[in-house]
Automatic annotation (TrEMBL):
It is a multi-pass membrane protein. This is Fimbria/pilus outer membrane usher protein. Keywords: Cell outer membrane, Membrane, Signal, Transmembrane, Transmembrane beta strand, Transport. Residues 37-183 form the PapC N-terminal domain. InterPro entries: Fimb_usher, FimD_plug_dom, PapC-like_C, PapC-like_C_sf, PapC_N, PapC_N_sf. The keyword Membrane applies. Pfam families: PapC_C (PF13953), PapC_N (PF13954), Usher (PF00577). Gene3D superfamilies: 2.60.40.2070, 2.60.40.3110, 3.10.20.410, Outer membrane usher protein FimD, plug domain (2.60.40.2610). Belongs to the fimbrial export usher family. It is found in: Cell outer membrane. Residues 771-826 form the PapC-like C-terminal domain.
Length: 843
């Protein structure tokens, strides 16, 4: 570069710094001055007649035209949209005024009084929000924002932690597939069992409607050969935002606070507590246990897989279940040594309490659709059911429900009480009346008591404690259908001894306690799970779970973790399953640890030395080697890799002279819309997600690497929160040198199952230093602006027409404006190999 060119560049940066200060000074003086006059004698410009600073004279000056902007209402952002700026008749050249579209008003969550005061302008096309006292509209075109501040008196809601329904985004039209694939190869001394299984969800979104189909497939070969595949649930739903409710049609599980659940085909309308403020929501169930080896844990309900994952040997606690899952869950743990143990988990919400003056409801119409060869056949009488909860007073709630199905009917009533410092409790009584073939009418009652308490001051909680007693002739709908089937098939004589597995009593408790929580070196945490179920005509079932976690310092070894976990399950169909494990783990490096564990499973003891490496967030692995009580050597390994397009895990377990097992799993998703398609992570099947678009710029990372744009500039961030404001942000520290992000953060609130869409303005390309000339050889006036097609000002014209641009694409065009209008257009060269001065003609 020549000396003359270097001097020009130096002068350019000095003058550009001054020009950047101009709008800053205007902002500082905005409250005091409506118009600013500049002393151009302070500028080092050779020809002062070629200066145009008129657009900087008025604070918030915007050139008339169309701009793509996000609208921010009291710090809550609405999606990107085109906003025209018109010059009003009496504006006297003061620039454009934002024309707010009329459909924006209903989305601002204004009171009816405020909406009635708003008038229109520009031939009825634009809403005049300034008709409301105290409203302030400010333009931040540089950041792609139009800010609207509305006094709280004009707003419907005032909860700072909750986004009003009017500002929720239902997303765009699109297709999705979320999948989970598991494979295992098991070779023993006298057997060979190999299998591959998959489950997942197909989906389509149109407007506020979400169509979903859950599938599961499996194939076994070796000693046992069989295959199956089915689309075992088809349904559609949509949120009804202003009712805080959800409408579902198709195959579903009855989800009632009072009536026991079963699978049915029909229509459901129910309040969705996720639409309520966080303090009024429930909890998601957990499943915990001990895996003797690397194992596959499958959680199902009414024969439908709702969660499946591979876990390494040792204690496990699954927290990935959806908060809407209720009722009895079947848990199957398939070990790599070929053994299987199963148990059941009864989920329940905390005692049923409702805000004073509010009524929650849950209404369903349909017919049962379980216990048939085809999962899509209805079976049993049609029914109508509903339950409600009414907040009678500050601390009292009344709830009840009923089911009417002709041959089977039930009804119940309960009361909930907030005990404040002592927790919350509810009690209810349900009556069933059933008419079975060739038998007299059977009627019975079931009583239930629930309790929950968070003891913050004692660092403990009773997540759920429940007791239920059912009389001999009490039946749930599932029990009624089972008995009816047996009698119709004449599998049992038509006598009073008609029932199997008649529930009698059920005790359940889930609790935790942290001792000495204020001292990390002494802290000890205890988890307790206990279920005891008795039957009128079968042996009782019990499940005990206890885990203790303790961190200690032993000499020079700091933060040594001691973990004790014990579980015992006794069921009718399986022998007693007892597992206890003690492990000691100590850090031996940055996020690396070594340890020792001893595990006893039904009398077989295994000693194991272990090594874990979590130093890389996306790649973790565990290794172990040891010996069993019979002298056989044991070796195991587990590896997991997270990428922006999915998760892969590999595992191996081998016992000398007994068996060897290898396993692999893969989990991910695919989402496609009119804007493109992308592979992505997926842990919540058919859940809410955000598609981001960087205008064909690849390898842009979002949300700490959770998603990276593909070669088409598209990525999907999965598992977004429902009905909660979430950020979508570019990882600016990972951008390459030739990429600039104009706006790195966007916010929004998506409804359940939505495919959101955010387009980010990304400048990728070369840097350009140029002198702009007009066709007659003159330069645009000093202070003219260079504007992108989107309306964003990216440079100010310096003396001699000098401009400096970054992120320029080959042959990209820009407008040059002065005098309140876009005067001409410049086109960047196809390629720039150095920073030497270029000359661009503005035509």
């Amino acid at each position: 570069m020549s000396v003359a060119t270097s001097n020009s560049v130096r002068k350019h940066y000095l003058k550009k710094a001054f020009m950047l200060c101009v709008p800053c000074l205007l902002v500082m003086g905005n409250n005091a001055l409506a118009e600013t006059e500049f002393n151009i004698d302070a500028l080092d410009v050779d020809e002062r007649t070629k200066i145009d600073l008129s657009q900087f004279a008025d604070a918030g000056y915007i050139m008339p035209g169309d701009y793509y902007l996000e609208i921010e209402v009291n710090k809550n952002k609405l999606p990107l949209q085109k906003i025209p700026f018109y010059e009003v008749e009496d504006g006297k050249g003061k620039g454009g005024v934002a024309c707010l579209p009329l459909d924006l008003v209903p989305r601002m969550a204004l009171t009816d009084e405020a909406i009635a005061k708003i008038d229109t302008w520009h031939q009825g096309q634009c809403a005049n929000l300034l008709a409301l006292d105290g409203v302030v509209i400010s333009n931040d075109i540089g950041n792609g924002l139009l800010r609207i501040a509305v006094p709280q008196a004009w707003m419907k809601y005032s909860d700072p932690n909750w986004i009003p329904p009017e500002q929720w985004d239902v997303g765009i039209t699109g297709l999705m597939l979320d999948y989970n694939i598991n494979a295992q190869v098991n070779e023993g001394s006298d057997y060979a069992n190999n299998n591959i299984s998959s489950y997942g969800t197909l989906g389509a979104n149109y407007g506020a409607w979400r169509l979903r189909g859950d599938y599961q497939a499996s194939s076994y070969w070796g000693d046992d050969e069989r295959s199956s595949a089915e689309l075992n649930r088809i349904y559609a739903y949509r949120p009804l935002s202003h009712m805080a409710a959800k409408l579902t049609v198709g195959e579903q599980q009855l989800n009632s606070q009072l009536i026991d659940g079963f699978r049915y085909t029909g229509v459901n309308l129910a309040n969705d507590e996720r639409m309520l403020p966080p303090s009024l929501q429930g909890y998601a169930p957990e499943v915990s246990g001990i895996a003797k080896t690397n194992a596959k844990v499958t959680v199902s309900q009414s024969g439908r897989v709702i969660y499946e994952t591979n876990v390494p040997a040792g204690p496990f606690r699954l927290r990935g279940l959806d908060s809407s899952v209720r009722g009895r869950l079947e848990v199957r743990v398939a070990e790599q040594d070929g053994s299987v143990h199963s148990f059941q988990v009864d989920t329940a919400t905390v005692p049923y309490l409702t805000r004073p003056g509010y009524v929650r409801y849950n209404l369903s119409v349909g017919a049962p659709s379980e216990r048939r060869n085809s999962t899509h056949d209805v079976h049993g009488p049609g029914f109508v059911t509903g339950d409600f909860s009414w907040g009678v007073a500050n601390s009292w709630s009344l709830y009840g429900g009923s089911m009417v199905a002709g041959e089977y009917n039930s009804m119940g009533l309960g009361i909930g009480r907030d005990l404040y410092a002592f927790g919350a409790v509810s009690a209810d009584l349900t009556q069933s009346i059933a008419k079975l073939p060739s038998l007299s009418t059977k009627s019975g009652q079931s009583f239930r008591l629930n309790y929950a308490k968070q003891f913050d001051e004692y660092n403990s909680a009773i997540s759920f404690a429940g007791y239920r007693f059912s009389q001999h002739d009490f039946m749930t709908m599932s029990q009624f259908l089972n008995n009816k089937d047996r009698l119709e098939r004449n599998e049992s004589a038509a006598s009073d001894d008609y029932k199997t597995w008649g529930d009698k009593e059920l005790y359940t408790i889930t609790a935790n306690k942290t001792f000495w929580a204020d001292d990390a070196a002494k802290a000890l945490t205890v988890y307790l799970d206990y279920t005891h179920r008795t039957y009128w005509d079968h042996e009782a079932e019990n499940r005990y779970g206890l885990s203790i976690n303790k961190s200690v310092n032993i000499g020079t070894f700091k933060n040594v973790s001691l973990y004790l976990s014990a579980y015992k399950t006794k069921t009718e169909n399986y022998e007693d399953d007892k597992s206890i494990m003690l492990s000691v783990t100590m850090p031996i490096g940055d996020r690396k640890s070594g340890g020792y564990s001893v595990q006893s499973s039904n009398g077989k003891v295994t000693h194991l030395a272990t090594y874990q490496d979590y130093s890389r967030p996306d790649d973790t692995y565990q290794l172990g080697a040891g010996v069993q009580s019979n002298g056989h050597a044991v070796a195991r390994g587990y590896y997991s890799h997270n990428s922006d397009i999915g998760t892969v895990s590999l595992n191996a377990y081998s016992v000398q002279s007994e068996y060897t097992s290898l396993g692999a799993s893969m989990r991910g998703g695919l989402t496609a819309t009119e804007h493109g398609a992308a592979l992505h992570q997926a842990s919540r099947r058919g859940g809410t997600r955000m598609m981001v678009d960087t205008d064909k710029v690849p390898d842009v990372s979002f949300n700490n690497g959770r998603a990276v744009t593909n070669r088409f500039g598209v990525a999907v961030i999965s598992d977004m929160s429902d009905y909660r404001k979430t950020d979508t942000r570019i990882d600016v520290d990972q951008l390459s040198d030739d990429i600039d992000a104009m706006n790195a953060i966007k916010q929004g609130t998506l409804t359940e199952g939505a495919i959101g869409y955010n387009a980010f303005e990304i400048a990728q390309g070369f840097k350009l230093l140029a002198s702009v000339t007009l066709p007659d050889g003159a330069n645009p006036p000093f202070g003219a602006t260079v504007v992108k097609e989107s309306g964003r000002v990216i440079s100010v014209v310096d003396e001699d027409g000098l401009i400096y641009l970054t992120g320029v694409k080959p042959d990209e065009s820009f407008d040059v404006s002065w005098g309140g209008a876009r005067q001409c257009k410049i086109v960047a060269p196809h390629e720039v190999t150095d920073l030497s001065m270029k000359t661009l003609t503005c035509k």
